[in-house]
Amino acid sequence: MRIIVAGAGEVGVHLAKMLSNEYHDIVVIDSEEELLRSLDSAADVTTVNGSATNISALNEAGIKKADLFIAVTHFEETNIIAAILGKRLGAKKVIARIDNYEYLEPNNKEIFLNLGIDYLFYPEKIAAREIIGLLGQTSSTEYVDFSNGKLSLIVFKLEENAPVIDKTLLQATRENGKLEYRAVAISREGETIIPRGSDQFKAGDMVYVISNQAGIKDMQTYSGKTNIDVHNLMILGGSRIGKRVAMELEKEANVKLIEFDKEKSIQLAQVLQNTLVIHGDGRNTDLLLEEGLRNMDAFVAVTGNSETNILSCMLAKRMGVKKTIAEIENLDYIKLAESVGVDTVINKKLITASRIFRFTMSTDVQAIKCLTGCEAEVIEFIVKPGSPITKGPIKHINFPKDAIIGGVVRGDMALIAKGVTEIKAYDRVVVFALPSAINRIGKYFN
């Protein structure tokens, strides 16, 4: 595919690097030459110096032949105008990043569709939704629903007391009888393993599991984890993410939100009716303790500073808070955060990549999730009639070894995939795939 990315900021650069690794023809437009020079040396992309709202710059980028145009500059208005121009000038599909929740309301989305914009995405809203889901599933470090919750991807760290420690996948399966969940990957010391029958579980492993609703409770038992009801929640940072989380949860829990900027604190206090908004510096340990950090069930750090978010979560853990979530925009810090005990990391670049990546696949992809804990994707395919995946049991179709089918949704049924499972047309299939498999698995569902 020929893909044009407007904006060489952090999100645009991450997208360009990721998509260039998938052998797409990538062009990046930005008005700042220094950003483009930096990108030129880091990725196999073509760059165009100019504004994404400049028709001559769009034409120089080859907009007439573009299969996909992605506008992710820092400015919402620029993204919307660039996307409209991109479509009018010949791009087959256009996507724009926005910062206004109002635009996503059903009646308003229709306006943008009529203007030619195929998809709007608001990373902060998606991040807030992920945090809210994780606060409902506190035993997991990552939690993603597929097919309206019929199947879920649950990620958790194995504790020393987990019953499966030192057992092979085959042993754990035999002992537990009929399972409603399946381990699809293990992340250990920076390596991601697609587990086979003889692979053992070790303490500290990050385990990726596909489960149906019936299996979630059993799966938590064997992981050594338990869910915690969140009655008291502290949020550090009155960002769009922090504000949205507070709005959604303030009627269900006692929420405290700490914001450094005084004017923003006043604005938040006017909007958040049932949240206690505190003006203060979240880096001040005494302030956090005075505001009852020790009594919190969960702590969410979503300031604009990754270091502050990590350090405050570390303090919360030391004070006995069971669930900590940190927004970390520096990808290099993710492993560090996990190693020092931060339970869950939220990253807007990966959230953005998840939303956009499915538009680059030729197969009918319903959803895709780029994971924070490992370099892998979980993809939900819709099976087309006559596709290779329907030609026999999974164990006989020579599916790539660096990918694994986790579950199948057929009508109202959610099935955990086994070697003898046969997949049928129009099934929804959830696949865990390492980067090396991404380009090969699509053909099985076409």
From TrEMBL:
One matching Pfam family: TrkA_C
Domain of life: Bacteria
InterPro entries documented for this protein: K_uptake_TrkA, NAD(P)-bd_dom_sf, RCK_C, RCK_C_sf, RCK_N, Trk_Ktr_HKT_K-transport
Keyword terms: Ion transport, NAD, Potassium, Potassium transport, Transport
Domain named RCK N-terminal: residues: 1-121, 230-346
Gene Ontology MF, one: potassium ion transmembrane transporter activity
GO cellular component: a single term: plasma membrane
SUPFAM superfamilies linked: NAD(P)-binding Rossmann-fold domains, TrkA C-terminal domain-like
Record domain RCK C-terminal: where: 141-225, 366-446
Annotated protein name in UniProt: Trk system potassium uptake protein TrkA
